[in-house]
Design goal:
The chain is 25% helix and 20% strand. It has 622 residues and is of the alpha+beta class.
Length: 622
């Protein structure tokens, strides 16, 4: 799913939830039409290395999800992170990300793939499909599947209700190559992120018409092409059951079945403790324990008009100590569960402090630059991540995580002057050494919007408040619930400062561009910010993203992205803070599971270690 849409749940809870993106990467070794080797032993994120020969055949895995997804078509607006998770087990993705987010061809589906070299027009991508690959109805993969999906996702036909992922609109033609296993895709202009296309790929019958595409992809009997097939789909009972695909041509799936159980975060530790779950994302259970357990949550802000006509959150009471304390207790409980290991990783998610450049006094670039310099990112990362047992690694890029190729901390290039000088020259003077700066009788006081009930967000807010106070900038944290965080605040500009996370991908030239694109006026003359919630952008930054998106040479593309990131720093758009934490509880004896980071589960390998007993299949207790 390539759209850069940020839903309310995604924005407000990315600090507190565990998700699997349905995105693929863009940075891989120079493509060549050579056979793709078998995948190496998995060490992605916090997944213990294993040999699939030690995983016994048979058994059932019980895996906690937020809800039974309304669709398994990740390109439909109703798709969720759980849709993407199941799609990885059911549908082909020609490329899958490695532990650093680099796309690697999946040999189960691709023998080889190559693109014409940089500088040659038009760009032609040649896919050599695995000749053994067939849909679950026995139909071989073909150019028809590619053609139908391109028509559904390219945009011209508005009858298709789609998220319109990037790249499909650039495709000029698709045709069969030298034989049915070869597919040639011609692009009208260079597209660096070509490996993200057709990942996942759906059968032509599901995408060839708008009627078929728009239908929710649910239930048994679906045509799939992964190691598993849908054996049961029970939204009311909160269960999706996957069973082995009898036509699967790759390494046989180890587990007989996987039960995905809708389990609320507050019940997941009990589920692990009472032997009702084997794999359970725990980030939300720990981070929001103070709210989920019934402790007094933060007061939610209300909106009220101001003189300028912009609504601002009414400051809440001081964040209750119950929230972070409850999170610490819940983490200790998770770590003490017998027969359960808590896996930890830095998620592929960029947490940042966003500055609303349309709101006084942040309309002044000097104030935004000073504020960015005043933030001690190491201190913030320590406050947010150390209590969770993670390395307190500050983030220095708006576009890349620390373990991605080309990562560089561009913060030092943001502004050469010190904080005091910038604020003094902007007219914000400090009456005393430890007082709040003032200008024209007004204090330099800002509100900081954070997700309600998130212990990580509260610790981040406390550290930011202390940081900025040292420079004479007063900050008051306010909260908003997930349901209104984006729609009522970020999207409307009803905030001054805000902390939330963006999903990180391997293709920032296309994925991150909307976050930093210069706002444009709509036909009525109203400035349309889209997902650039900071409402700050420049033509130069837009051009750098566009050039990077069309640059097929990896080194040249990274150079353009570094320049774009430096310009974003200098603009005072936002301040990168850290990667969102990811916690996953896994029962002892389960092999191949944990916190995957950029990677995806290799479902055919996940199962029970030899000699371990898997649970008997039982009705869902959720």
């Amino acid at each position: 799913m390539r759209a850069r849409q940020l839903t309310a749940a995604a924005a407000a809870l990315l600090l507190a939830t565990s998700t699997l993106a349905a995105c693929t990467g863009d940075r891989a070794p120079a493509p060549a039409p050579a056979p793709v080797p078998a995948p190496p032993t998995i060490t992605t994120g916090d997944v213990r290395p294993y040999d699939r020969d030690t995983v016994r055949d048979g058994g059932t895995l019980r895996w906690a999800v937020d809800a039974v997804p309304a669709t398994l078509n990740v390109y439909q607006p109703a798709a969720t992170a759980d849709s993407a998770l199941l799609a990885h087990a059911l549908y082909p993705s020609l490329f899958r990300p490695d532990e650093h987010g680099r796309p690697v061809a999946d040999p189960d589906y691709l023998v080889a793939a190559e693109s014409t070299p940089p500088g040659r027009r038009p760009q032609v991508i040649t896919y050599r499909l695995n000749p053994k690959a067939v849909w679950s109805d026995g139909t071989p993969f073909s150019a028809a599947d590619f053609t139908a999906q391109r028509a559904a996702l390219s945009g011209p036909d508005t009858a298709y209700t789609s998220t319109r992922p990037a790249g499909y609109g650039l495709i000029d033609s698709i045709e069969q190559g030298a034989d049915p296993a070869e597919v040639k895709v011609v692009l009208r202009q260079p597209y660096a992120d070509w490996r993200a296309l057709f990942s996942p790929l759906y059968p032509a019958a599901r995408t060839a018409t708008a009627t078929a595409f728009n239908q929710p992809l649910t239930g048994t009997g679906q045509v799939t092409a992964g190691p598993y097939a849908v054996a049961g789909y029970d939204p009311e009972g909160g269960r999706v059951t996957l069973g082995r695909n009898p036509l699967w041509w790759g390494d046989p799936a180890k587990a007989d079945r996987i039960d995905f159980l809708a389990a609320p975060p507050e019940q997941r530790l009990d589920g692990l403790d009472q032997d009702r779950l084997d794999i359970a994302p725990l980030t939300a259970a720990v981070d929001r324990a103070g709210v989920l357990s019934g402790a007094s949550p933060d007061a939610s802000p209300s909106a009220s008009p101001t003189v300028s006509g912009t609504a601002t959150p009414t400051p809440a009471a001081a964040p209750p100590a119950a929230v972070p304390e409850a999170a610490v207790r819940e983490l200790r409980r998770a770590e003490a569960l017998p027969g359960v290991t808590v896996h930890r990783a830095a998620a592929p998610s960029l947490t940042q402090l966003t500055l609303n450049a349309a709101h006084e006094p942040l309309t002044d670039p000097a104030v935004r630059a000073a504020l960015g310099l005043a933030v001690d990112r190491r201190r913030i990362a320590d406050a947010a991540l150390t209590p969770l047992g993670l390395v307190a690694a500050p983030l220095g890029s708006h576009l890349l995580t620390a373990d991605q190729d080309g990562y560089r901390d561009n913060g030092p290039a943001a502004a050469p002057a010190d904080v005091s000088r910038l604020l003094d020259e902007a007219g914000w003077r400090r009456p005393t050494d430890d007082g709040t700066r003032t200008k024209d009788g007004k204090d330099l006081a800002l509100t900081l919007l954070i997700p309600a009930g998130s212990a990580t967000a509260l610790r981040t807010a406390d550290a930011l408040t202390a940081d900025l106070a040292e420079s004479g900038i007063a900050v008051r944290p306010v909260t908003a619930p997930a349901e209104t965080f984006v729609q009522d605040h970020l999207a409307t500009g009803d905030y001054e400062l805000a902390v939330f996370s963006w999903p990180a991908g391997s293709n920032p030239a296309t994925e991150q561009r909307p976050v930093y694109a210069k706002p444009r006026p709509d036909p009525d003359g109203v400035l349309e910010a889209g997902t650039n919630f900071a409402r700050a952008g420049t033509e130069e930054i837009d051009r750098l993203f566009d050039r990077a998106a069309a640059e097929l040479d990896l080194d040249a593309r990274l150079a353009l992205l570094q320049e774009a990131d430096t310009r974003i720093w200098q603009l005072g758009h936002s301040v990168p803070l850290y990667q969102r934490p990811d916690l996953v509880g896994v029962r002892s004896g389960v092999v191949g599971a944990g916190a995957w980071g950029f990677g995806w589960p290799r479902f055919q390998d996940i199962g029970w270690a030899g000699g371990e007993q898997s649970p008997e299949a039982t009705p869902s207790a959720w």
